[in-house]
Amino acid sequence: MDGCSGTSEVPAMVVGGGAAGTPAASRWNPTKEQIDMLENLYRQGLRTPTADQIQEITGRLQTYGHIEGKNVFYWFQNHKARQRQKEKQDHLSLFRQYNHHHRHLHQPPFVHIPPPPNGSYFKSSSLFYIFII
Question: Which residues pair with 112 in a beta bridge?
Answer without folding.
Answer: 129
